[in-house]
Description:
The two termini are 13 Å apart. 69% of the residues lie in helices and 3% in strands. It has helices spanning 28-37, 49-53, 58-82, 85-92, 96-124, 127-146, 150-165, 167-176, 184-192, 194-209, 218-224, 227-236, 242-253, 257-294, 297-304, 309-337, 339-352, 354-359, 365-390, 396-410, 414-422, 442-463, 478-484; strands at residues 426-432, 435-440. The chain has a two-stranded antiparallel ribbon with strand order 1-2. The longest helix is centred in the middle third of the chain and has 38 residues, at 257-294. Mean pLDDT is 84; it is low at 1-16 and 489-512. It is an all-alpha fold. It is globular, with a radius of gyration of 23 Å.
Amino acid sequence: MAASVKEHEGSPSSPSDLSTTSSTHMTASRYIRTRISSLKPPMDKAPNPIAVLRLLNKQQWLFFLVAFLAWSWDAFDFFTVSLTVEELAETFHRSKTDITWGITLVLMLRSVGSIIFGIAADRYGRKWPFVVNNILFIILELATGFARTYNQFLAVRALFGIAMGGLYGNAAATALEDCPAAARGILSGMLQQGYAFGYLLATVFARALVNTTPHEWRPLFWFGATPPILIIIFRLCLPETNAYRERQRLRQANGDITSTFIAEGKVALKRHWLLLIYLVLLMAGFNFMSHGSQDLYPTMLSNQYNFTPNAVTVTQVVANLGAMTGGTVVGYCSQIFGRRFSIIVVSILGGALLYPYSFTGSHNVIAAAFFEQFCVQGAWGVIPIHLMELSPGSFRTFVVGTSYQLGNLVSSASSTIEARLGERFPLPPKMSKGVSVKRYEYGKVICIFMACVFVYVVLLTVVGPERKGRGMGAKEDRDLVDVTGLPEAEGGSESDEGVRGRKGGEGRKELV
């Protein structure tokens, strides 16, 4: 186990927790003993969020904006199936459970895309893998809209899963690796809420485009293929990130870029394999948290509590407004209170809100939905920068994307699990259009399932590392420095316990 050093804002990076080399690292027993004491909030000075956002220059804002738009539309394309399950089931003459395999396949195969595009982005740059990703979105959304059979539908969605998996790590790196350290928390929260914003857009456009033309659900997918064209043009107008260009210059100075990249990979895997396992386990919990609280919720409202489609839409919109607010607010607060502490607090609050969230059968559930998703996505708002700060610098896109998507793989059947468990708690059937419709107590299942997930996330966050404020420059990456033999950045490397402050070379360090 390794020493975990939390540095002051803007200071160089700290030793890598959960890495397995370097004589400076603390023992496993000491690491374990410091997990509780390390949760004490650093209580860093709370800057004015507007002043923090003003720290970004024009290029940094453009990087953030293109990443946010791409991640938002990625989420839009994903939720197009969730919002048209009934229509798809009718078209393909399949059950709703059969159609949900179109969702499960996407979740299962996203990890394949994260590996392929993550390695490509770390080796060849953020720009062109990003562009290829969005080209695939265009092709596959159009193909979904033209699918004529159930098997065609599943095949296209499986390929879409690979494409979708490649974007998250790239978007996080594009948006955050060049941004000022003081702005990381709030930008992380804003970026992550592109997911909720994409769902919100999908909900609105589904109401506008589904069953409003003779083509039924298909116009929603056709429309989903158009914005990525603009996103591609936007990205083509921007250069590579400064952090990647600096890293590429160091690789080139070492001679063979590819061999240097491969050597970095070997060093990173040897040093950080335990950290990578931890990140996958953490992301599994987070993905269970989001999918477990969201995927079956509209079905619960309509099936168990007899909400009308409009009432379901309003509730979902309000819940996603809560999610967007929570992600931004908690992401900002993590800059003050620390990443782990912020995640744990909102997870506990989310657990406390589960009963009204899942057992309120009136329209008053809107308030519970707002605050529950505030907590769920508030915890998620910390994740982009938390993963960026923990990940090995040479493989930042790969590690961020793959840990996130492998977590998705583990949680891919969450909606199917909840649906199957719900069938064990039948309710009296209802009549709809002259047909008897089975009803189930989905609220009980969601409540129990999510309670277990929150406990898991809290426990795993408690035992995990934190590297708030870590430097992201290439010369602050000990793995790259060791491979190239080039001088380290002033202030030390990732594994140097002498953490210096931003000014005067003097700072403080704190074991966490």
